[in-house]
Amino acid sequence: xxxxxxxxxxxxxxxxxxxxxxxxxxxxxxxxxxxxxxxxxxxxxxxxxxxxxxxxxxxxxxxxxxxxxxxxxxxxxxxxxxxxxxxxxxxxxxxxxxxxxxxxxxxxxxxxxxxxxxxxxxxxxxxxxxxxxxxxxxxxxxxxxxxxxxxxxxxxxxxxxxxxxxxxxxxxxxxxxxxxxxxxxxxxxxxxxxxxxxxxxxxxxxxxxxxxxxxxxxxxxxxxxxxxxxxxxxxxxxxxxxxxxxxxxxxxxxxxxxxxxxxxxxxxxxxxxxxxxxxxxxxxxxxxxxxxxxxx
Length: 296
Known about the structure:
- By secondary structure, this protein is an alpha+beta fold.
- The chain has three domains: 11-57, Uridine Diphospho-n-acetylenolpyruvylglucosamine Reductase, domain 2; 67-177, Uridine Diphospho-n-acetylenolpyruvylglucosamine Reductase, domain 3, CATH 3.30.465; 185-295, 2-Layer Sandwich (Enolase-like, domain 1), CATH 3.30.390.
- 34% of the residues lie in helices and 24% in strands.
- It has eleven helices and 14 strands.
- The chain has a five-stranded antiparallel beta sheet with strand order 4-5-10-6-7. The chain has a four-stranded antiparallel beta sheet with strand order 11-12-13-14. Strands 1-3-2 form a three-stranded parallel beta sheet, with helices on one face.
- A hairpin with a 2-residue loop joins strand 8 (158-160) and strand 9.
- Helix 9 (235-243) runs antiparallel to helix 10 (248-261) and helix 10 runs antiparallel to helix 11 (272-295).
Protein backbone atom coordinates (compact mmCIF):
# COMPACT_ATOMS: atom_id res chain seq x y z
CA UNK A 1 0.00 0.00 0.00
CA UNK A 2 1.22 3.50 -0.86
CA UNK A 3 2.35 5.30 2.31
CA UNK A 4 1.61 8.68 0.69
CA UNK A 5 -1.99 8.75 -0.58
CA UNK A 6 -1.79 12.36 -1.78
CA UNK A 7 0.60 14.77 -3.48
CA UNK A 8 2.82 17.12 -1.48
CA UNK A 9 1.87 20.80 -1.60
CA UNK A 10 3.13 22.89 -4.51
CA UNK A 11 2.49 26.24 -6.18
CA UNK A 12 1.09 26.28 -9.72
CA UNK A 13 2.77 28.71 -12.14
CA UNK A 14 1.41 29.47 -15.62
CA UNK A 15 3.81 31.61 -17.67
CA UNK A 16 2.72 33.37 -20.86
CA UNK A 17 5.92 32.79 -22.86
CA UNK A 18 8.84 30.40 -23.11
CA UNK A 19 11.18 33.17 -21.97
CA UNK A 20 9.14 33.76 -18.80
CA UNK A 21 8.97 30.03 -18.08
CA UNK A 22 12.69 29.54 -18.62
CA UNK A 23 13.59 32.52 -16.43
CA UNK A 24 11.40 31.19 -13.61
CA UNK A 25 12.97 27.74 -13.82
CA UNK A 26 16.47 29.24 -13.75
CA UNK A 27 15.54 31.42 -10.75
CA UNK A 28 14.31 28.38 -8.78
CA UNK A 29 16.83 25.57 -9.38
CA UNK A 30 15.82 22.34 -7.70
CA UNK A 31 12.45 23.83 -6.71
CA UNK A 32 10.62 24.23 -10.03
CA UNK A 33 9.74 21.62 -12.65
CA UNK A 34 8.16 22.05 -16.10
CA UNK A 35 4.73 20.42 -16.29
CA UNK A 36 2.84 19.15 -19.35
CA UNK A 37 1.01 15.84 -18.96
CA UNK A 38 2.22 14.88 -15.50
CA UNK A 39 1.70 11.13 -15.90
CA UNK A 40 5.22 10.38 -14.67
CA UNK A 41 5.78 13.50 -12.57
CA UNK A 42 2.69 13.09 -10.39
CA UNK A 43 3.58 9.48 -9.59
CA UNK A 44 7.10 10.53 -8.62
CA UNK A 45 5.69 13.31 -6.47
CA UNK A 46 3.19 10.97 -4.82
CA UNK A 47 6.01 8.57 -3.97
CA UNK A 48 8.13 11.51 -2.70
CA UNK A 49 10.87 10.90 -5.25
CA UNK A 50 10.47 14.58 -6.16
CA UNK A 51 9.00 17.35 -4.06
CA UNK A 52 9.05 20.44 -6.27
CA UNK A 53 7.89 23.69 -4.73
CA UNK A 54 6.62 24.95 -8.10
CA UNK A 55 5.06 23.27 -11.14
CA UNK A 56 5.46 25.42 -14.24
CA UNK A 57 2.65 24.70 -16.72
CA UNK A 58 4.07 25.11 -20.24
CA UNK A 59 1.59 23.01 -22.22
CA UNK A 60 -0.39 26.05 -23.46
CA UNK A 61 2.58 27.92 -24.93
CA UNK A 62 2.98 28.53 -28.68
CA UNK A 63 3.19 25.39 -30.80
CA UNK A 64 3.13 22.93 -27.91
CA UNK A 65 -0.16 21.34 -29.06
CA UNK A 66 0.56 21.27 -32.80
CA UNK A 67 1.43 18.49 -35.25
CA UNK A 68 2.84 19.50 -38.62
CA UNK A 69 4.14 17.56 -41.61
CA UNK A 70 5.50 18.24 -45.06
CA UNK A 71 7.58 16.25 -47.54
CA UNK A 72 10.63 18.49 -47.20
CA UNK A 73 10.97 18.86 -43.43
CA UNK A 74 9.22 15.76 -42.14
CA UNK A 75 7.15 15.56 -38.96
CA UNK A 76 7.10 17.87 -35.95
CA UNK A 77 5.15 16.94 -32.81
CA UNK A 78 4.59 19.58 -30.15
CA UNK A 79 5.62 18.65 -26.63
CA UNK A 80 2.02 18.77 -25.36
CA UNK A 81 0.51 16.59 -28.11
CA UNK A 82 -0.97 13.52 -26.45
CA UNK A 83 -0.06 10.00 -27.51
CA UNK A 84 -3.63 9.34 -28.60
CA UNK A 85 -3.41 12.29 -31.01
CA UNK A 86 -0.15 10.93 -32.38
CA UNK A 87 -1.69 7.48 -32.87
CA UNK A 88 -4.68 8.97 -34.72
CA UNK A 89 -2.72 11.40 -36.91
CA UNK A 90 -2.88 10.38 -40.62
CA UNK A 91 0.64 11.69 -41.28
CA UNK A 92 2.00 9.42 -38.55
CA UNK A 93 0.05 6.38 -39.79
CA UNK A 94 1.15 6.98 -43.39
CA UNK A 95 4.85 7.76 -42.93
CA UNK A 96 5.91 6.86 -39.35
CA UNK A 97 3.68 3.91 -38.37
CA UNK A 98 6.27 2.49 -35.94
CA UNK A 99 5.82 5.65 -33.83
CA UNK A 100 2.07 5.04 -33.56
CA UNK A 101 2.60 1.33 -32.85
CA UNK A 102 5.00 1.99 -29.98
CA UNK A 103 2.80 4.76 -28.53
CA UNK A 104 -0.21 2.45 -28.54
CA UNK A 105 1.68 0.03 -26.28
CA UNK A 106 1.91 2.64 -23.49
CA UNK A 107 -0.37 1.95 -20.51
CA UNK A 108 -4.10 2.53 -21.13
CA UNK A 109 -6.16 4.68 -23.49
CA UNK A 110 -7.11 6.95 -20.58
CA UNK A 111 -3.50 7.60 -19.62
CA UNK A 112 -2.53 8.22 -23.26
CA UNK A 113 -4.97 11.15 -23.39
CA UNK A 114 -2.46 12.98 -21.17
CA UNK A 115 0.85 11.20 -21.78
CA UNK A 116 3.06 12.66 -24.52
CA UNK A 117 5.88 11.43 -26.74
CA UNK A 118 8.14 14.26 -25.54
CA UNK A 119 7.33 13.46 -21.92
CA UNK A 120 8.21 9.80 -22.49
CA UNK A 121 11.54 10.86 -23.99
CA UNK A 122 12.40 13.45 -21.33
CA UNK A 123 11.55 11.06 -18.50
CA UNK A 124 14.56 9.11 -19.84
CA UNK A 125 13.48 5.75 -18.48
CA UNK A 126 15.51 2.91 -20.02
CA UNK A 127 12.13 1.16 -20.39
CA UNK A 128 10.44 3.99 -22.32
CA UNK A 129 8.21 2.43 -24.99
CA UNK A 130 8.39 5.18 -27.62
CA UNK A 131 12.07 6.06 -27.23
CA UNK A 132 13.30 3.25 -29.52
CA UNK A 133 11.11 4.44 -32.39
CA UNK A 134 12.18 8.04 -31.79
CA UNK A 135 15.85 7.00 -31.91
CA UNK A 136 15.50 4.96 -35.10
CA UNK A 137 13.52 7.75 -36.79
CA UNK A 138 16.44 10.11 -36.01
CA UNK A 139 14.43 12.34 -33.71
CA UNK A 140 15.66 15.84 -32.87
CA UNK A 141 14.47 17.77 -29.82
CA UNK A 142 13.73 21.47 -30.20
CA UNK A 143 14.69 23.12 -26.90
CA UNK A 144 14.16 26.63 -25.56
CA UNK A 145 16.75 27.54 -22.94
CA UNK A 146 18.82 30.32 -21.47
CA UNK A 147 20.84 30.64 -24.68
CA UNK A 148 17.80 30.67 -26.95
CA UNK A 149 16.55 27.87 -29.21
CA UNK A 150 18.69 24.84 -30.04
CA UNK A 151 18.31 21.32 -31.41
CA UNK A 152 19.64 18.14 -29.85
CA UNK A 153 19.84 14.65 -31.31
CA UNK A 154 18.43 11.79 -29.28
CA UNK A 155 21.59 9.83 -30.03
CA UNK A 156 23.44 11.96 -27.44
CA UNK A 157 20.52 13.05 -25.22
CA UNK A 158 20.42 10.21 -22.66
CA UNK A 159 23.07 10.07 -19.93
CA UNK A 160 21.59 7.47 -17.56
CA UNK A 161 18.32 6.39 -15.97
CA UNK A 162 16.29 9.59 -15.61
CA UNK A 163 19.30 11.69 -16.67
CA UNK A 164 19.57 13.77 -19.84
CA UNK A 165 21.58 16.67 -21.22
CA UNK A 166 18.81 19.17 -20.36
CA UNK A 167 20.07 22.16 -18.39
CA UNK A 168 18.30 24.38 -15.81
CA UNK A 169 15.75 26.51 -17.65
CA UNK A 170 15.51 24.19 -20.66
CA UNK A 171 12.03 23.49 -22.05
CA UNK A 172 11.57 20.95 -24.83
CA UNK A 173 9.06 22.51 -27.22
CA UNK A 174 8.74 19.70 -29.79
CA UNK A 175 10.32 16.64 -31.33
CA UNK A 176 11.14 16.65 -35.03
CA UNK A 177 11.65 13.73 -37.42
CA UNK A 178 13.20 14.04 -40.89
CA UNK A 179 11.34 12.59 -43.87
CA UNK A 180 11.10 8.83 -43.40
CA UNK A 181 12.85 6.49 -45.86
CA UNK A 182 10.61 5.26 -48.65
CA UNK A 183 8.70 2.07 -47.81
CA UNK A 184 9.84 2.08 -44.17
CA UNK A 185 8.53 -0.91 -42.19
CA UNK A 186 8.76 -1.44 -38.46
CA UNK A 187 7.80 -3.54 -35.47
CA UNK A 188 7.74 -2.93 -31.73
CA UNK A 189 7.64 -5.92 -29.37
CA UNK A 190 7.34 -5.51 -25.63
CA UNK A 191 7.63 -8.15 -22.93
CA UNK A 192 5.89 -7.29 -19.66
CA UNK A 193 4.53 -9.18 -16.69
CA UNK A 194 1.02 -8.71 -18.06
CA UNK A 195 -0.54 -7.73 -21.37
CA UNK A 196 -1.59 -4.20 -20.39
CA UNK A 197 -0.15 -1.20 -18.58
CA UNK A 198 3.17 -2.72 -17.52
CA UNK A 199 6.71 -1.43 -17.91
CA UNK A 200 8.75 -3.35 -20.44
CA UNK A 201 10.98 -6.11 -19.08
CA UNK A 202 12.42 -6.04 -22.60
CA UNK A 203 11.45 -3.77 -25.48
CA UNK A 204 12.61 -4.27 -29.08
CA UNK A 205 12.07 -1.78 -31.90
CA UNK A 206 13.08 -2.83 -35.41
CA UNK A 207 12.83 -0.93 -38.69
CA UNK A 208 13.90 -1.72 -42.22
CA UNK A 209 13.65 -0.21 -45.69
CA UNK A 210 15.02 -0.78 -49.22
CA UNK A 211 18.51 0.70 -49.75
CA UNK A 212 20.08 0.20 -53.16
CA UNK A 213 23.64 1.08 -52.05
CA UNK A 214 23.73 -1.67 -49.40
CA UNK A 215 24.89 -5.14 -50.45
CA UNK A 216 21.77 -6.94 -49.19
CA UNK A 217 19.52 -4.28 -50.68
CA UNK A 218 18.00 -3.39 -47.30
CA UNK A 219 18.89 -1.22 -44.33
CA UNK A 220 17.90 -2.49 -40.88
CA UNK A 221 18.11 -0.72 -37.52
CA UNK A 222 17.31 -2.01 -34.03
CA UNK A 223 16.86 -0.36 -30.62
CA UNK A 224 16.47 -2.02 -27.22
CA UNK A 225 14.69 -0.86 -24.06
CA UNK A 226 15.05 -1.92 -20.43
CA UNK A 227 18.35 -3.79 -20.94
CA UNK A 228 20.95 -1.03 -20.45
CA UNK A 229 21.29 2.21 -18.45
CA UNK A 230 20.05 4.16 -21.47
CA UNK A 231 18.02 3.27 -24.58
CA UNK A 232 20.35 1.36 -26.89
CA UNK A 233 20.67 1.21 -30.66
CA UNK A 234 22.48 -1.98 -31.71
CA UNK A 235 24.68 -1.02 -34.66
CA UNK A 236 25.79 -4.62 -35.28
CA UNK A 237 22.33 -5.61 -36.48
CA UNK A 238 22.48 -3.26 -39.45
CA UNK A 239 26.01 -4.38 -40.28
CA UNK A 240 25.10 -8.08 -40.31
CA UNK A 241 21.91 -7.66 -42.35
CA UNK A 242 23.54 -5.19 -44.72
CA UNK A 243 26.41 -7.34 -45.97
CA UNK A 244 24.76 -10.70 -46.60
CA UNK A 245 21.60 -12.01 -48.28
CA UNK A 246 18.81 -11.93 -45.72
CA UNK A 247 17.50 -15.30 -44.62
CA UNK A 248 16.65 -17.10 -41.38
CA UNK A 249 20.31 -17.69 -40.59
CA UNK A 250 21.23 -14.01 -41.04
CA UNK A 251 18.31 -12.97 -38.84
CA UNK A 252 19.49 -15.37 -36.13
CA UNK A 253 23.01 -13.94 -36.31
CA UNK A 254 21.58 -10.43 -35.91
CA UNK A 255 19.51 -11.55 -32.93
CA UNK A 256 22.61 -13.04 -31.30
CA UNK A 257 24.45 -9.75 -31.87
CA UNK A 258 21.65 -7.85 -30.15
CA UNK A 259 21.81 -10.20 -27.16
CA UNK A 260 25.57 -9.72 -26.83
CA UNK A 261 25.30 -5.94 -27.12
CA UNK A 262 23.00 -5.43 -24.11
CA UNK A 263 23.92 -5.30 -20.43
CA UNK A 264 20.76 -5.82 -18.36
CA UNK A 265 20.62 -6.08 -14.58
CA UNK A 266 18.81 -8.36 -12.16
CA UNK A 267 15.80 -6.69 -10.54
CA UNK A 268 12.43 -7.62 -9.04
CA UNK A 269 10.87 -8.00 -12.50
CA UNK A 270 13.42 -10.26 -14.21
CA UNK A 271 16.95 -11.60 -14.08
CA UNK A 272 19.69 -10.33 -16.35
CA UNK A 273 20.02 -13.75 -17.98
CA UNK A 274 16.30 -13.94 -18.74
CA UNK A 275 16.37 -10.46 -20.27
CA UNK A 276 19.30 -11.37 -22.54
CA UNK A 277 17.52 -14.51 -23.75
CA UNK A 278 14.37 -12.50 -24.43
CA UNK A 279 16.36 -9.88 -26.34
CA UNK A 280 17.56 -12.63 -28.68
CA UNK A 281 14.10 -14.15 -29.11
CA UNK A 282 12.19 -10.88 -29.54
CA UNK A 283 14.83 -9.42 -31.85
CA UNK A 284 14.59 -12.43 -34.16
CA UNK A 285 10.79 -12.21 -34.16
CA UNK A 286 10.73 -8.44 -34.77
CA UNK A 287 13.32 -8.55 -37.56
CA UNK A 288 11.54 -11.45 -39.24
CA UNK A 289 8.22 -9.56 -39.17
CA UNK A 290 9.86 -6.46 -40.65
CA UNK A 291 11.51 -8.60 -43.34
CA UNK A 292 8.20 -10.27 -44.20
CA UNK A 293 6.56 -6.85 -44.55
CA UNK A 294 9.35 -5.68 -46.85
CA UNK A 295 9.13 -8.64 -49.21
CA UNK A 296 5.34 -8.45 -49.05
